[in-house]
Specification:
By secondary structure, the chain is mainly alpha-helical. It has 3 helices and 2 strands; from the N terminus they run E-E-H-H-H. Strands 1-2 form a two-stranded antiparallel sheet. The termini are far apart. The structure holds FE2/S2 (inorganic) cluster. The site of FE2/S2 (inorganic) cluster has 12 residues, from loops.
Length: 69
């Protein structure tokens, strides 16, 4: 899914950036220029980061709970 029309940034770019340590819009702006022109993509980019963060948190909790069994 395209997230940023101005800089042709998509969800895959955000996933890749997050896997390399991006955890805030400023990181995405630095790496991908997301949100640096019209700014219309900022909320969507932040939503993508939050979903990734929640997904990673849930995965960590699942790993921790199965390790205790
Ligand atoms: S849509 Fe991302 S800066 Fe314009």
């Amino acid at each position: 899914m395209i997230v940023c029309l101005c800089h042709a940034g998509n969800e895959g770019d955000i996933v890749r950036a997050a896997s390399e340590g991006a955890s805030a819009l400023t990181h995405l702006s630095e790496r991908l220029n997301l949100g640096t022109s019209c700014g219309a993509c900022r909320d969507c980019a932040v939503d993508c980061l939050e979903k990734l963060s929640q997904s990673n948190r849930a995965e960590s909790l699942l790993k921790a709970s199965t390790a205790q069994i």
